[in-house]
Each structure stands twice: as structure tokens, then as C-alpha cells.
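User: I'm curious whether this sequence folds into something compact or stays loose and floppy. Could you predict its structure so I can see for myself?
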Amino acid sequence: MQFGDFKALVSPLVLPPAGPLLLALLGLLMIVGLKRAPRVRRVAWALVLVSLLALWLLSCHAVALRLTGWLLPLPAPITDKALASMRPQAVVVLGGGVLAQAPEYGAAQPNSATMARLRYGIRLARTHQLPLAFAGGVGWSGRGTASEAETVKHSATQDFGFEIRWLDDQSRDTRENAQRIAGLLQPQGVRRIALVSDAWHLPRATLEFERAGFEVLPAPTRLPLPVARPALEWLPSAEGLTASRHVLREWLAWRAARFSGP
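Assistant: Here's the prediction. I'll summarize afterward.
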């Protein structure tokens, strides 16, 4: 088993909702098995309650927003001034996943994250007359479906009337994105890029692309913002849980990338 396969297996067990639920289950097993150890049983009950409280809080979008601000150095939205100062030579869009089955289309399609990144990348490329590259194969948790690059190439042509110049359809993670895009762009003299991905992903993506030899201007999409009235932001929701999961996963991956070196 390769490291990426191990990461794809362990990550869902550590992150919410599975992580807190497994801790709560551990506490319940301790309670059942330690009937004659009242002190330990109190610790077990505390573990159950803390785990469930953590799951509640991590399911609140307001908590996800605060975690994002505390844990990740998010880039600001890209500006015309930043573009004029840096003068990127190309736009690079990173994949965010595919819908392996889309019966209404009859073929795999970019998921919502990938489509948001693609749309913004094409907008930047058209507005500033830049070529566009896309990086995305089948991730470590993929099931042998069509690569992100294949689905995006079709969508860019069919939905936006835009031709992508460079496609990486082999990379499985962000580090491989950077390495393979470097192999495509740098022999053609491209060193300065506008890098498009979700805001929470860009700290790590920027680090990996800089290590690969690029000068990077982060171009974030889907910046974390409130989605409901203030009071509703503190109620558990699927959106809140998903946002917390993304932030915690990316914080762990970013920290690991910083210490792992090139």
C-alpha cells in the first residue's frame, strides 16, 4: 500500500463526522466494560459528551468560519492591480473532483468545486488573454473513473467554448499537480502563474507550486463567507460540517507539507 492509499483510508476516519463518533463509541465501550471502576467510567462519560459536543460545534458554519481564520492563511481575492504587478504568463486551474456518474449527461462531469474553479479560471484567461492549464487525474480515492482533466476538457469546450492549452491527467494529489504542470509549462518558459483553487486549498497549493519553481499569484474561489442569518450559522448543518471537514483536512495537509520538504 502506497502512502497516498493509506492517507485516503485514514483521513475519513480521523476527520468529522467519523472522528468524533468513533471517540464517542470508544467512551461507550469503556462504560460498558468498566462497571466496577467508577472513576474511569466518569472519564468515559466525559469522553462521550465532549465528542458529541465537538461534533455539534463542528457542524455549525459559524465555527467552520472561525476555524478557517485561525488555522489557515487564506489569500485575498485577486485584483487587477495584483495581476498587473505580477504579470502572470498563464492561468493554472486545479481539479476538485468529478461526478463519476451523471446519467443526465451520459458521461462523468466536473463536480461543483471543479466547475467553480474552471469557470473562474476561464474568466481570468479570457479577460487577460492568457493560456490556461488544468491539473487533475484520478485521486488516491478514485475508482478508475474518467480523470478530472478529461471531463474538464469536454466541459470547457462544450459549455464555455474555450480550449485548454495544457492538461495534466495523471496527477493524484496537489504535489503531483505541481510537478506535472512544471513539466508541461516550464520547458515553454512559463514561470509566473495565476493559480486557481478553493481558498482553503491555496496555502498548500501555493507552497507546492513554489517548490516546483513557479512564481505564484493565488486566485481563490469559494471564499469562506456566512451563508445564512447569524443565528442560523450556529445551528448544525450539512454545510457547516462539510466546511469544518475541509478546513481541518487542509490544515493537517498544509502542516504536513510544510514540514515534509520538497
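Summary: The two ends are 22 Å apart (CA to CA). Residues 10-71+233-254 form one domain.
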